[in-house]
């Protein structure tokens, strides 16, 4: 694999999910593969899981890891041909090439601004790294996608399912801050790829990019959508149509034990307790959020492994 910027970069997702479940049993089986290879992780935004699990995965493969919080480096310019006499100090052209001298793989986390829809959709930061770096690029959550999380979620569902084709529902939840659509987008694409009965529920005004939704059923009636669900994946996102806006903070959309019934509760974390989901769910046996977080390591490890094999 030459890059991992969206889930389609994985040639065979079913095989990758299986391989990740196997890696979980023998995480050090490829401890030599990454010897003398370096992963540089660049963070434009906060992270707990992605940062630690990706580093852990790289170390399991014998790699060296360097982490740079981009706010500690020079202010980057992304526009071509700009007169850089304002706040930006270094152009992405140099920065990406320089990082490529020190690393064998570069991973980037960069959230959307949620102001300019076209600009966010262009993935200008991630794509600039792809354009100017001479090494493989891994997406650690970009403006529109979080493919490491989606792979994790597929692994978790595969491990925990008790029927061959489980019913999976993505349910919107309220949140006081405007959040990206990235996690939802990648989860939807992943659920469209694996063998599940998948649907989405959210309030009116929260319809996601139709190019991602495609034929997936969407209901504005949460109660109806959740009927007989095996897995309920809860996530907030800000409006896509009224771009970046919070249109509803309706607490009725919070996930509760009563609504969840017998389903497993999934969330990528971090999660706001008693806003997105009530304590009684998170603290119950039905919550699988910690298993999900654990699987982040093996999702990252299978991705890095396939990239190292292609170097
Ligand atoms: C981010 C988001 O919703 O995309 C990161 C989730 C992994 N969440 C927050 O900023 C709270
Ligand atoms: N789920 C996830 O990506 O968590 P972090 O933002 O903490 O990395």
Brief overview:
With 311 residues, the protein is an alpha/beta fold. The chain folds into 2 domains: 7-143 and 295-310, 3-Layer(aba) Sandwich (Rossmann fold); 147-292, Rossmann fold (3-Layer(aba) Sandwich), CATH 3.40.50.1370. It contains 12 helices and 11 strands.
Please name the CATH topology of the largest domain: Rossmann fold
Derived structural class: alpha/beta
**Total number of distinct structural domains:** 2
- Please tell me how large the radius of gyration is: 19 Å
Report helical residue fraction: 25-40%
Can you tell me about this structure?
- With 311 residues, this protein is of the alpha/beta class.
- It has 2 domains: 7-143 and 295-310, 3-Layer(aba) Sandwich (Rossmann fold), CATH 3.40.50.1370; 147-292, Rossmann fold (3-Layer(aba) Sandwich).
- 37% of the residues lie in helices and 14% in strands.
- The protein has 12 helices and 11 strands.
- It has helices at 13-25, 49-60, 92-102, 117-121, 124-132, 147-160, 182-193, 210-213, 222-226, 257-260, 279-282, 289-310, and strands spanning 38-43, 64-69, 76-77, 90-91, 105-109, 137-139, 167-172, 197-201, 218-219, 231-235, 264-266.
- It has a 5-stranded parallel β-sheet with strand order 9-8-7-10-11. It has a 4-stranded parallel β-sheet with strand order 2-1-5-6, with helices on both faces.
- Helix 1 (13-25) crosses helix 12 and helix 6 (147-160) crosses helix 7.
- The radius of gyration is 19 Å and the shape is globular.
- Bound molecules: N-acetyl-L-norvaline and phosphoric acid mono(formamide)ester.
- The site of N-acetyl-L-norvaline has 7 residues, from helix 7.
């Amino acid at each position: 694999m030459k890059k991992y910027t969206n889930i389609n970069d994985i040639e065979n997702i079913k095989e990758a999910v299986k391989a990740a479940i196997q890696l979980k049993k023998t995480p050090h089986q490829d401890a030599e593969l990454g010897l003398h290879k370096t992963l540089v992780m660049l963070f434009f935004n906060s992270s707990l899981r992605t940062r630690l699990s990706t580093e852990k995965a790289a170390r399991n493969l014998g790699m060296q890891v360097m982490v740079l919080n981009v706010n500690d480096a020079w202010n980057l310019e992304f526009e071509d041909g700009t007169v850089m006499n304002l706040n930006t100090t270094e152009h992405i052209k140099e920065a990406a090439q320089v990082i490529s001298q020190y690393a064998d793989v570069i991973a980037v986390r960069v959230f959307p601004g949620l102001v300019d829809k076209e600009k966010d959709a262009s993935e200008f930061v991630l794509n600039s790294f792809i354009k100017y770096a001479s090494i493989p690029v891994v997406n650690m959550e970009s403006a529109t996608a979080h493919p490491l999380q989606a792979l994790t979620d597929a692994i978790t569902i595969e491990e925990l399912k008790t029927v061959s084709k489980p019913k999976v529902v993505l349910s919107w939840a309220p949140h006081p801050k405007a959040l990206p659509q990235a996690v939802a987008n990648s989860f939807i694409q992943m659920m469209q790829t694996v063998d599940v009965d998948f649907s989405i529920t959210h309030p009116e005004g929260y319809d996601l990019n139709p190019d991602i939704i495609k034929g997936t059923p969407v209901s504005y009636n949460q109660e109806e959508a959740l009927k007989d669900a095996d897995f309920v994946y809860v996530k907030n996102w800000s409006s896509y149509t009224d771009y970046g806006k919070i249109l509803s903070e309706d607490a009725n959309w919070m996930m509760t034990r009563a609504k969840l019934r017998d389903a497993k509760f999934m969330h990528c974390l971090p999660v706001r307790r008693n806003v997105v989901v009530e304590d009684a769910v998170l603290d119950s046996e039905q919550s699988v959020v910690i298993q999900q977080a654990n699987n982040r390591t093996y999702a990252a490890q299978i991705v890095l492994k396939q990239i190292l094999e292609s170097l």
